[in-house]
Amino acid sequence: MTFKVPFSTLQQPKDAGGTALIHIMAKCTNLFIVRMERQGQQTDNFTADWLTKWHLHGRTPNPPDIRRIPTKLDYLYRYNIQAAYTPIRGNLESQKIYRKLLYKGLLTSIHAVAGLHEMRIQKLWPDTDWIQVWKNLSDAPVSDNTQCVWYQFIHDLIPTNVRLHRINVTPSNTCQQCAAIDTLEHRLNVCGEGRLIWQYMKTILARMLRTIPARTSNEWLLRPHFNIWPSKRNHAVLWTLANVVISRLLQRTAPKLQDFMYFLFRSRCKLMNNRLGRDLVGNYLTVLDPTPTGR
Ligand SMILES: [Zn+2]
Q1: pLDDT at 216
Q2: Per the domain annotation, does 235 fall within a domain?
Q3: What is the model's pLDDT at position 20?
Q4: How far, in Å, from the CA of 263 to the mean position of ligand 1?
Q5: Looking at the structure, do residues 161 and 275 belong to the same domain, yes or no?
Q6: Do residues 69 and 84 make contact, with C-beta atoms less than 8 angstroms apart?
Q7: Do 102 and 243 have their domain in common?
Q8: pLDDT at 294 over 50
Q9: Is residue 8 part of a domain?
Q10: Surrounding residues of ion ligand 1, Cβ less than 5 A
């Protein structure tokens, strides 16, 4: 599944909703510094002679004197600037650890200059515990594809007609099924029998949590920032919510309660046929079984 997210989102750490993608500028500078240092340590080396001539071995004065080296000696000119902020490798420090520390330092200074990127959803919902949301998303015992779809919903990346109309892709911002405004919430738990389905699922979740449906939140579908004890119950709640999300996306043309129940039944069979899946949710999904009264 392919979809677009801002580059800065991918560079966020994994526990912050990104993919910990390498920062190319920091990585290249890192390689450049390490390479120059290595060359400087060699004898009979042209670069080592230049570094000696311009007093560039070790850390240079901070702030750097940028007029000291002619700009046409580009790599020495740049190294003079970088070396002013570069930590010296300790005697006991391995090359690998030194490179890691260097990369971390470069990232910190890049972020200090450019400002730390905050995701759009973090700005919209600053009170949400986003670390818990990303942890829950990766803990949900569902397929990678379902996690991917949920990720898009959480990031508000679904091309609803409200969004498409805003950039003149669709003639109107209304839903093709029912003519209501096609927002993310409308797709998730309103359109078709969406209200009925969500109401039913809230009673299921309430039974799982031994509470009343009013204590379950609509917000959980888009911001699952809860941490329920024990972890098996947390997994079961996450499995249920993820299935509501994926079924709503798959059943766009016939979002009926009966179709949804059948979908949920098959999905649970798949999970329970897998030993790992059974271990993750324990007995918590038995609340989906019909009660003796047939209700
Ligand atoms: Zn609709």
Answers
A1: 93
A2: yes
A3: 81
A4: 20
A5: yes
A6: no
A7: no
A8: no
A9: no
A10: 175, 177-178, 191
Query: What is the reported pTM?
Result: 0.76
Query: How many angstroms is it from 182 CA to the middle of ligand 1?
Result: 6
Q: Can you give the length of the chain in residues?
A: 295
93-149, pLDDT tens digit by residue?
Answer: 888 888 888 888 888 888 888 776 788 898 999 999 999 999 999 999 999 999 999
Is residue 147 in some structural domain?
yes
Q: Give how many domains the chain has, as a whole number.
A: 2
Picking from 75, 90, 114, the residue at the C-terminal end of a domain is 114
**Residue 83 C-beta-side C-alpha neighbours within 13 Å:** 22
Q: 68 with 145, same domain?
A: no
Ligand 1 geometric centre to CA of 215 (Å): 26
Domain that holds residue 166: 130-288
Say whether pLDDT at 251 is over 70: no
User: If you measure from the C-alpha of residue 186 to the centroid of ligand 1, how many angstroms do you get, rounded to a whole number?
Assistant: 6
Whether 57 and 186 share a structural domain: no
CA distances from 132 to 15, 188, 223, 225, 232 (A): 8, 21, 9, 5, 16
3-state DSSP call for residue 136? helix
Q: Do 137 and 212 belong to one domain? A: yes
**Could you tell me if 50 and 109 lie in one domain?**
yes
User: Which structure tokens are listed for 49?
Assistant: 């002679």
Tell me, yes or no, whether 284 and 155 share the same domain.
yes
Q: State in Å: Cα 273 to ligand 1 middle.
A: 35
In-domain check, residue 261: yes
273-288 pLDDT tens trace: 999 999 999 999 999 8
> What pLDDT was estimated at residue 295?
47
Give me the mean pLDDT over the 240-244 stretch: 96
How far apart CA 189 and CA 221 sit, in angstroms, is 9
Ligand 1 centroid–CA 178 distance in Å is 4
Given a contact cutoff of 8 angstroms between Cβ atoms, the answer to whether 103 and 22 are in contact is no
- β-partners of residue 25 are none
The CA 144 to ligand 1 mean position distance, Å, reads: 27
Residue range 41-62: average pLDDT? 85
Domain boundary among 80, 114, 148: 114
